[in-house]
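Sanity check. The docking grid for adenosine-5'-triphosphate depends on where the pocket ends up, so I'm generating a full predicted complex first rather than guessing from homology. Inputs follow.
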Amino acid sequence: MSTDIFPKVVITGDYFCNRENEREELGAYILKGRHTWLQAHRRHGKTSLVAQCVEDLQHSHSLYYSRVFLSFSIDEAACIRKIIKSIDSIIHAFFNAHEPEQPLGEKMIRFASLLSEVFRKLQPTISLQNNRPVISTAKNFDIVALEDALAGLNALAAKFDFRAVLFIDEFQEIAKLKEHLMLESTIREQVEDATHLTFIFAGSEKTLMQQAFTNKKRPLYKHLQPFEVKRISTPCYHKHLNKLARDRWQHPMDEDAFETLMFLTQRHPYYVNFLCDELWKKEMPPTRHDVEEAWNVVVYKAKREGAYQDSALTLNEIRVITGIANGFTQNMTRKDVVRSLDMAASSIQSTLKALIEKGFIDENEDGYYVIDPGLATFALRQAGN
Ligand SMILES: Nc1ncnc2c1ncn2[C@@H]1O[C@H](COP(=O)(O)OP(=O)(O)OP(=O)(O)O)[C@@H](O)[C@H]1O
Ligand SMILES: [Mg+2]
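Predicted complex below; grid placement will be based on this.
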């Protein structure tokens, strides 16, 4: 359980805000082995949701989980190595929980022979390092090892009737490799054959993820259940933050202050936490003015931390972002928008497309919006608004 009530990283436990429906739905998919593709923008709570679901399920089910983070994996071997290390950590967690009353030495010997039964091509080892058992399924990190490690994990889980959950995050890194089709088809085989292993995939580069899972020519086409992780609703935040406000000041939040918080952060979970972290430092319950002041601090700090990733933006992209932040969200090629942005209609259109692809803006029923609310405010300030 987290002790930081508004962390910048993964959150579970008492300070995890609701998401009851998503937890129930994703939990059901995990248990029945429906492999899932989590769709969400950066820092919208994917990892937290999966971790919370796993914690929920572990109360009543035998379930072991690991997350693979594929960013910075420069080649095929690096990707495979990370996936296999995650498999090892699941096996290790199962080993620790299994027959806890057995003396360690005997347990290790029995487990080693068990592992050699379930892994057909690999020769897994279990050894003591600094008095702690270490499990290693593979020494070489190639396609054959990946196939056998995934199949072996499924076989072990089937033998002891537990569910293994493998969350492959930043999956698009595989799609960037020269040999990506081989890797994807190996994973597809395991996705198809898995009986006790559930895969969850996510990635922050939307276009590459879409190509990997929705293009007929790709091995994982139509093999996954898309699952959209939306922003947390206002009523959920209302209940959650008022509870935390009562814990802090023995008083719920001022309604005006709460609404301003929701408006400025646009319910982006990373920014809600960032702003609340500033507010909860105060001795008195925050007013609307306090929220606005703290937001200025957040926008400044986020810029300093490089959160906006705006250094690669072209002048036209900055103009369009500023226009959207200013309230131009629909019919972006109409005359008043063209005049205000001082751009040709065709150029506005191609810039919108590029910004969507780069993950800076998106579209919903109300029109276009800037995904990062800190960047939206920053762009407005730069433009003198
Ligand atoms: N249900 C929640 N309740 C409260 N805060 C949350 C919740 N979900 C996510 N957050 C907060 O939002 C931020 C992003 O969460 P998380 O790291 O889980 O997102 P992510 O989508 O996995 O991010 P990334 O794109 O970096 O992988 C963190 O500050 C986290 O504490
Ligand atoms: Mg994450």
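Relevant for the grid: The chain has a mean pLDDT of 95.
Also worth noting: Residues 7-11, 16-17, 19, 40, 42-48, 204, 232, 269-270, 273 surround adenosine-5'-triphosphate (ligand 1) (CB under 6 Å).
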